Automatic annotation (TrEMBL):
InterPro entries: Restrct_endonuc_typeI_TRD (IPR000055), Restrct_endonuc_typeI_TRD_sf (IPR044946), Type-I_RS_S_subunit (IPR052021)
Top-rank taxon, per record: Bacteria
Gene Ontology biological-process entries: DNA restriction-modification system
Ranges in a coiled coil: 173-200, 359-386
Protein name: Type I restriction-modification enzyme, S subunit, EcoA family protein
The keyword Cytoplasm belongs to this UniProt entry's keyword annotation: no
Gene source species: Staphylococcus aureus
Molecular-function GO terms, alphabetical: DNA binding
Gene (name only): hsdS_2
Length: 389
């Protein structure tokens, strides 16, 4: 019996094999030249990135003969599973197709063709609760890559309430998923807004004015070596086996990678720029701000500035395409010498402050939105634990 039920429903749920409700088949393995045209087909990312799948949100297309298309239709209410994955956590993950316009499906997918009555959202959620995920993942074969078979899925036991109760549970989670989706769309709009502002600001299409409505001075060309004071001599790597776990962030090239028992920097705000193992493309995290008490290893340059806004420079570095300054590939590296010779057009400090304040305000909105999404996901997680057996 589930811990939480809708009023008016009583009695035990009935345990049945998944094979009583679905017929299972593997998907299409087409030739390279067949992709990119024809009918949309469901693949791995469509399962991973959607609460439910519709024809519109499917990414890929494939062109196949009529007889192949006929035998590989995914229709409303059908289930789709990840047949193969690099991790046990993802193998056998289930999603559901909710569109009257049929799609096809790829070779890394198993289709569960609906042959008996069930609520699709209910069954998808029932198969993705932690207990079922563990059961399916444990049954998967493989060592470097894990695979689940049609037979494994066919034999999975699922407890079913009456179809009316399934419908109510499905409707509840459908509404929750829709709410999460809407909040994620709001977050995406904020992310696009921030990118738009950055493009206009750093191309100088958008300029700020002073309190009297006058233009600020023209931006000046400066090299990194003239903007920052380097403190790379203060950073210190600790191999993972020697790190003592603690409360203080341990920073590497891409951000916090661990927490340790001690710190090197004590309430000193610094800009950290990835030296190796980072990403340096436009709108990627080439740099980030560190403050409070923290440790930095030797994979990030540590800089400060007495006459430039560190947040402004952080936004600028993450906007700028820096890969041309990176050398090597095992790993790629943004050396101290190359970093010093990168040049920027820089506004006066007051305009830097205004740019930073605007972009930080959008960041705050994005953080609040991410918190809202996380709360909704936690609510869904709690309901899943209480409403399924």
């Amino acid at each position: 019996m589930p811990e939480l039920r809708f009023p008016g429903f009583e009695g035990e749920w009935e345990e049945k094999k998944l094979g009583e409700f679905c017929e299972f088949n593997n998907g299409i393995n087409a030739k390279k030249e067949q992709y990119g045209m024809g009918r949309k087909f469901i693949n791995v990312l469509d399962i991973l990135n959607n609460n439910f799948i519709t024809y519109e949100n499917i990414i890929g297309k494939v062109s196949v003969p009529e007889n192949v298309e006929k035998n590989n239709k995914v229709e409303f209410g059908d289930l789709v599973f990840l047949r193969s994955s690099e991790t046990r956590e993802d193998v056998g993950l289930c999603n559901v197709y909710l569109d009257k316009n049929y799609a096809l499906y790829g070779g890394f997918i198993i289709r569960g063709k609906k042959v008996s009555d069930y609520n699709p959202i209910f069954l998808k959620e029932a198969l993705n609760i932690p207990k079922k995920r563990y059961e399916i993942g444990s049954a998967a074969g493989g060592s470097t890559r894990f695979n689940v078979s049609q037979d494994i899925l066919r034999k999975i036991n699922v407890k079913f309430p009456p179809i009316e109760e399934q419908q109510k549970i499905g409707d509840l989670f459908s509404k929750l998923d829709r709410q999460i989706e809407l909040e994620e769309q709001k977050l995406e709009l904020l992310q696009q807004q921030k990118k738009g502002y950055m493009q206009k600001i750093f191309s100088q299409e958008l300029r700020f004015k002073d309190e009297n409505g006058n233009d600020y001075p023209e931006w000046e060309n400066k090299f990194i070596k003239d903007i920052f004071i380097f403190e790379n001599n203060r950073r210190k790597p600790i191999t993972s086996s020697l790190r003592e776990k603690g409360l203080y962030p341990y920073y590497g090239a891409t951000g916090i990678i661990d927490y340790v028992k001690d710190y090197l920097f004590n309430n000193e705000e610094r800009l950290l720029i990835g030296e190796d193992g980072a990403k340096w493309g436009q709108f990627e995290t080439s740099s980030f701000i560190a403050n409070g008490q923290y440790w930095v290893n030797n994979h990030a340059h540590v800089v400060k500035s007495n006459d430039h806004n560190l947040f402004f420079m952080n936004y600028y570095l993450n906007f700028k395409e820096l890969r041309a300054f990176v050398t090597g590939n095992a790993p790629a590296k943004l050396t101290h010498a190359n970093l010093c010779n990168i040049n920027f057009k820089i506004p006066c400090l007051t305009e830097q402050d205004k740019v930073s304040a605007l972009l930080k305000s959008i960041d705050n909105k994005m953080n609040n939105q991410m918190n809202r999404i996380e709360l909704l996901k936690e609510r869904k997680k709690g309901l899943l634990q209480k409403m399924f057996v």
